[in-house]
Design a protein that fits this description.
- The protein is an alpha/beta fold and 431 residues long.
- The protein is built from 18 helices and twelve strands.
- The strands form three sheets. Strands 1, 2, 3, 4 and 5 form a five-stranded mixed beta sheet that branches. A five-stranded mixed beta sheet has the order 10-9-8-11-12. A two-stranded antiparallel sheet has the order 6-7.
- The chain binds zinc ion (ZN).
Length: 431
């Protein structure tokens, strides 16, 4: 059914290089259907023999185009056919506005990429009047060709794990400008990217700030860093990742006390574990009261002391950047039964040169605050990794405008402690 009296909405033009013949509504799905012909008919010779071609009727091929005001839009291209006057073979008119293999217009492909940065595939499919499965397939085709763009690495490179599309994925960032460079599907993909000869800027990198968890992948230890980035002079472990990792290790070390406390409280060990990892400042009164009770229970007294050690650890390494309290912390941790936190002390002390620069360098401090925003950023909807990556890049690939607070001023003693830090380049990164 064709209704030629339809008016064209103001915000739409026919696809480039085409003229509209008529507009109608599709009876099946309410989509707007536009009949078009190419603007310029090229009088091209026969592609087979170079002879002269004669028009031989038109055939209609349907393409999907950008929806107009939420209404799906289809374009029927009345494609000119020819027959050669010399060799007799038939050929077709060409028009760069159509993606002939995929039955979409070029601008529809661009529109999908743009929408995927702020919306999920289900809602894009709905707007375009398209089957979700087809859109997903199309999207993967489009992003596969797009991700081949080479990226230049910044001088100060941040490497961090970020939760994207239901999994922890490695991300690269510029520490100085707080800008996301890219996010990778997996560690393997990141490795591939970094060792790729097409990425020649790894010699530019002089500073790497990384999550300590990444070392588990045996790719970002101090030794490997220098293979990857030959000019690195400063290697830093992010203090937030240090805190995460230390808390995880404290939980594991406290496991016998957690079990004992759970049975004394008649609760599950999971509930005690959950309470143990939470910051005291975030606790409700009742939860906070529950921890206070631990100190009077013989089964829970050690866990109580461990809890407050954990809290002070986070204060030192996250809140105050207060290194003068570190020695006090060690002394108290060593008074725990069986010196249970020795492992945590060893972790920090053995990596001292890499965990303390966070307090010295304002840009690293700003980067860590910013990274927390990236890690907390929630992408709504059911995204595939490719779509979630685009959404995350759209949000964080430009410098953040929000002013960031500087770290609290350092005491003289802290200044001295920091002045004694020697960096990776000068002492071989050990000790
Ligand atoms: Zn011919």
């Amino acid at each position: 059914m064709v209704n030629d009296s339809l008016k064209r909405p103001l915000n739409s033009d026919p696809p480039p290089n085409t003229n509209c013949i008529s507009l109608s509504w599709s009876d099946d799905d309410g989509a707007q259907v536009e009949q078009v012909v190419s603007t310029t008919i090229h009088d091209l010779p026969c592609p087979y023999c170079g002879g002269k071609r004669r028009p031989n009727g038109r055939r209609i091929v349907r393409y999907r185009d950008v929806p107009i005001d939420g209404v799906p839009h289809l374009v029927d291209w009345h494609r000119q056919h020819y027959r050669c006057t010399q060799c007799g073979r038939s050929s077709n008119e060409e028009n760069p506005t159509f993606e002939k293999e995929r039955f979409i217009t070029k601008r529809f492909a661009e529109w999908i990429m743009q929408e995927a940065r702020r919306s999920n595939l289900a809602s894009i499919a709905k707007q375009a009047g398209m089957n979700q499965v087809f859109l997903r397939r199309l999207f993967h085709f489009l992003t596969a060709t797009n991700s081949a763009t080479p990226v230049r690495l910044p001088r100060s490179l941040g490497v961090a794990m970020v939760k994207v599309a239901g999994g922890n994925r490695p991300a690269l960032a510029d520490v100085d400008t707080c800008v996301l460079v890219d996010v990778f599907d997996s560690m393997d993909e990141l490795k591939q990217f970094l060792v790729d000869k097409e990425t020649p800027s790894s010699t530019d990198v002089t500073c790497v700030v990384r999550d300590i968890e990444l070392e588990a992948a045996e790719f970002f230890g101090p030794g490997q860093l220098r293979d990857l980035f030959p000019n690195v002079t400063l290697s830093v472990i992010s203090s937030r990742s240090l805190a995460r990792s230390a808390v995880a290790s404290m939980v594991a070390l406290c496991e016998p006390w957690i079990e004992a406390t759970a049975s004394a409280e008649c609760r599950s060990p999971i509930s005690v574990r959950k309470l143990f990892v939470r910051r005291n400042q975030d606790l409700k009164r009742s939860a906070s009261g529950r921890i206070r009770k631990w100190q009077h229970m013989s089964e829970a007294a050690s866990l109580f002391r461990a809890y407050w050690l954990k809290e002070r650890f986070l204060e030192i390494w996250l809140d105050d950047a207060n290194l003068t309290r570190w020695q006090d912390w060690i002394d108290e941790a060593n008074r725990l039964p069986e010196q249970r936190f020795q492992e945590v002390i060893t972790l920090v002390e053995s990596r001292w040169n890499e965990v303390t620069p966070c307090f010295k360098d304002l840009s690293i401090f700003r980067y860590e605050r910013w990274l927390e925003d990236v890690q907390k950023y929630e992408i709504r909807g059911t995204h595939s990794f490719a779509a979630a990556r685009l959404a995350l890049l759209a949000k964080f690939e430009k410098p953040s405008e929000a002013p960031l607070a500087p770290p609290s001023s350092l005491s003289e003693e802290e200044e001295r402690a920091i002045a004694n830090i020697s960096y990776l380049g000068s002492n071989d990164g050990s000790g």
